[in-house]
Amino acid sequence: MAMVGEAFLSASIEVLLDRIVSGYVLRLIKGKKLEPVLLKKLKPTLMSVKAVLDDAENKQITNPSVKSWTDELRDAVYDAEDLLDEISTEALRNKIEPEYQTTAMKKVSSFLSSSNPFKDGMQSKLEEILGRLDYLLNQKQILGLKENYKGEKAFQRRPATSLVDESDVYGRDDEKEEIMKLLDPQNLSENQIAVVPIVGMGWLGKTTLVQLIYNDPRVDKWFDRKAWVCVSEEFDAFNVTKTILEEMKCSCDGNQNLNQLQLKLKEQLSGKKYLIILDDVWNKNYFHWKELASHFTSGAKNSKIIVTTRDENVAAIMRNNVPTYRLDVLSDDDCWKLFAKHAFDALGGLLRCKPDANEWKKILHSNFWDIPNDATNILPVLTLSYHYLPSHLKLCFAYCSIFPKDYEFEKEELIQLWMAEGLLELPKDNGDLEERGTKYFKDLRLRSFFQQSKGKKSCFVMHDLISDLAKSVTGEFICRLEGSGGGSCVITERTRHLSNVQEEYDVRQKFQSLAKAKGLRTFLNTKPVWYCSFVSDVLMHDLMVKSSLRVLSLAEYRNIKNFPEDIGNLKHLRNLNLSRTKIKKLPNSLCTLYNLQALKLRGCRDLDELPRDMERLINMLYLDIKGTKLARMPEEMGRLKDLQIVTDFVLGCQTGSRINELGKLKHLRGRLSISGLKNVASAMDAKDANLKDKVDLKKLKLRWGKDDDIDGDSRHDREVLEQLEPHTNLEHLVIQSYKGTRFPEWVGHSSFSNIVSLGLHDCEFCISLPPFGQLSSLNSLSISGLSGVLIVGDEFYGNGQASTKPFQSLEMLSFKNMAEWEEWYCWSDDAFPLLQELSIRDCPKLTKSLPKHLPCLKKLEIEDCEKLGGFLPTAPSILELELQKCKALQLEPLACGLRELDIDYSDMDNSVLEQMLQRCTLLEKLCLSGSLPMVKHVNIWGCEDLKFISAASEGSHHQHLHYLDIRFCQNLISFQIEDGLSVTSLTRLWLFSCGSLKSLPEQMQSVFPSLEVLEIDDCPEIERVPKEGLPSKLKEIRISWSDKLIENLIRKREWSLHTLPSLTSLNIWDSEVEMECFPDEHLLPSSLTSLDISSLRNLKSLGYKGFQHLTSLCNLSIYNCPKLQSMPPNMLPPSLSRLCIKNCPSLKEHCEKDKGKDWANISHIPVIVIDEQVII
């Protein structure tokens, strides 16, 4: 729906007009670096253009010339924004650089500025933009565009009535019944009237749902009066009141005023129980609603009003004591039913009128299928939500079209992108940009433009229809590159923002059109599917010339190791993300990017220092260096006074910023880690960090030194920690490698009532734990490496002083690597009332004793606690239990709800095991060496006495088995499976290090008919496959360290792999078998897409005939084959998209780019990886 793009354009012009009169522009004019005449002309020109946009919005739907005019205008507005940004950047440079210049440098600078090349460049650009705008303004007469057009909007919604065809409704039965329960007379309301708000995005079915409710026969029994009003955008109390009266069969003569109508309504409702539907409400004026609602109070108690709206703010204003009902999207099945009903009915109606087969063919090949979504009635409904957004939210929402569909984004990520694009700046307002962004985000979420992700709770998504709406707003100005060829994305000269959905290998072809986007502002990598990605070197070169870039994200590219000096040319850059790259050093030219707001280097494990002049980046707000190996911070970090987030502040031994620099960073918020606290010279320096006054700090990690540091001053460390007391608003705290013997009083003090998670790690000299039991909000507690603690006693709970239950909110508790811990005193059965997970690992001296009763415990892990005796806690809610190396425990029958049990390596009598499991009828996963109940996932590990695995056809417990994993069973000889048995659900079988196993199960094809993955590792005695052959559904086979089996495969060809129609992946690793050539002709099936051969030490050549028919092969990996000399003499299959060669010295030489004798045979492959070199 391109028309909404003009609303976006109008909003852009409003912002641009504000920037023209901003302070930095006026300062440059006063400094004679900019002529005022042209800028004065720019403002009225833009205002004249803006005056005709409303008319253009309507006419461009049917007039392509008007659509072209608006696109050209939008392009010119972008250029004008870039020009003003250049002006502001020049002003910023003039402010910062003189502070760092010597006297001689200032004289040179003064001489050079006299010619003022900046002024000349700006003048010419401004003249060119004004010329374009004047030209477009002159076109308005030709196009018939009128100023200040107030015609009817083309996308106004038709009012909905109460009528509904229930045969067209799918998937709302549950929702309907939930709301009917609220209307039921037995559900008594505290208020005279109960208002039930239903909130959801447009086109989700809110109106349909209330139509179903309104027409339900129960409503007529429960209510004396009912009325339906479609309120829509304009909240008119007169019309609403009049409609309610007419719905109640009360005539209105048309001459009555609002007061008379409302008196009449009050009379009609008096003493009557009523239901009123207010559909599609947009009004957010509280007083308008109160004025209308005051006349509803004359009705009988338990009357109900149902309100449907897209906006949570509307719901908040109108509801009283009933919580908002949020309508979710339909399930996939219901969506398909709805689509099938309408799409096929429509198409069937068309074809019914065309009895001739040729007419049907014409319809099949017609342009009908190319009609965009704009022609449907789905997006026009959604455009109402967009149309009524204020200008600043229009711009923020439109930018979201950069995200691919179903992309999960974090609120902070999006706010930082808005900030980089300047969408959060307001004239004459120096307020907090992040707070403003948070408000904008909340406003859009409340209006149902964003939804919380069902996967990651910290993330949000846009519904597909909302994503389509955003894309329709921005058109070609925002592009999304998807797939190796870029997908359907078309990069043009007008493209300003570009997102890239990363592939494992982003090849040169994907970015071949990037050069067209000369004014590109955003290059954003969205999170890849792959664990890591690699990119063509061409991309970096192409991006360094994009001087308008504001956002540059190259995150996740593992072959980026160096960054060019000419990064300093990207003067407009605000947001740079190099997270999880292999970058080793950043050029100091980065410190001339004075607009830079966010620098993200998370997970850059090879990065050991930041540029020396970081203090010049005075606009820096976010610095993420978590997961780097920095040894120190650069000098004078305290000059970055606006810094809000610094994930890690690293204190060097003698150089770099000291801890007192943190005291100058008064706006720190969110999370902060301070590393290298062993280098703090004095406690007074720590006090100067002033953590206690940082009220917005939520997460704090204090780390003294590396885990292997054994030196330390206990008293000094305690004094330092005492001065690092944070504000009581803190929510998450970690203290690591602290060398003190006791913790300061503030650690565990009850005043820290907001603490929800806490960790103490490797504080090896501490002899007692703080009173964490009195932290009222503590949800998660992790304690590890406190080897000085012998007893956990009363002090842990708060010395009995707390009036409430100790650990009243704790849900997760973990103890690990407590080498000297001997006793745990649980003095009260009231402790841990909500504990759900308890983990105790590597506590070899712990003898007693576990809490007796944990009513909410769901997961219990005990490992390497050989001396721990007594009983397990009474835990009726237990779902997962893991017991390893804790044989002193006394075991009793487990709760019937147990789902997973892991007792590997436990020395246990079978009768004890049977007694434990006698009530466990819901067990799904079992890791042990005994019998197999009704489980889905079985691990059998380290069972030295196990010789046979048998299975009978009696019973059905094996029918649930999906995954069978057998490892380290050195005496296992064979499978004994009764004839007629079929384990129909097994999809994966893994045999590892079973040295005596001689064969796979006979009749494997019929026993495991659904097997998809077969992995055999280190089973040297297996030499043959079943005579019947392998299961036909096999997709993946992996074999290693099993020479007899590999020889059988290659030489005797008894495996008959070529008969497996579904096989797509074959891995053969680690073999000493003599082999001249692999693979032989027709050894492998044509369905194969991936072939991985590794450590075949005697392989000498690759058989070209064996590759000729592999027409689906995409990936070929060859590792550690020292005798392999060359590639096949003929070209490899054209389907091959990736070739990886590693540790094959002779083959590497023959495949060297442009030089090796085999290069011609492989040069057509898009991605070639030879050792560490990626050729794309």
The first-level CATH class of the domain at 172-329 is given as Alpha Beta
Give the number of DSSP strands. Answer: 46
Round the Cα radius of gyration to an integer and report it: 36 Å
CATH topology of the domain at 172-329: Rossmann fold
Name the poorly predicted regions. 1-5, 103-115, 151-155, 338-344, 346-354, 366-378, 929-933, 953-957
3D shape: globular
Task: Give the end-to-end Cα distance, rounded to a whole number of Å.
Answer: 39 Å
Find the structural class using helix and strand composition.
alpha/beta
Write structural notes for this entry.
The structure is a single chain. With 1176 residues, the chain is an alpha/beta fold. Among the domains are: 111 residues; 158 residues, P-loop containing nucleotide triphosphate hydrolases (Rossmann fold); 86 residues, Arc Repressor Mutant, subunit A, CATH 1.10.10; 117 residues, Ribonuclease Inhibitor (Leucine-rich repeat, LRR (right-handed beta-alpha superhelix)), CATH 3.80.10; 112 residues. It is built from 31 helices and 46 strands. The protein has a 30-stranded mixed beta sheet. Helix 28 links the parallel strand 38 and strand 39. Helix 1 runs parallel beside helix 5. The two termini are 39 Å apart. The N terminus is likely disordered.
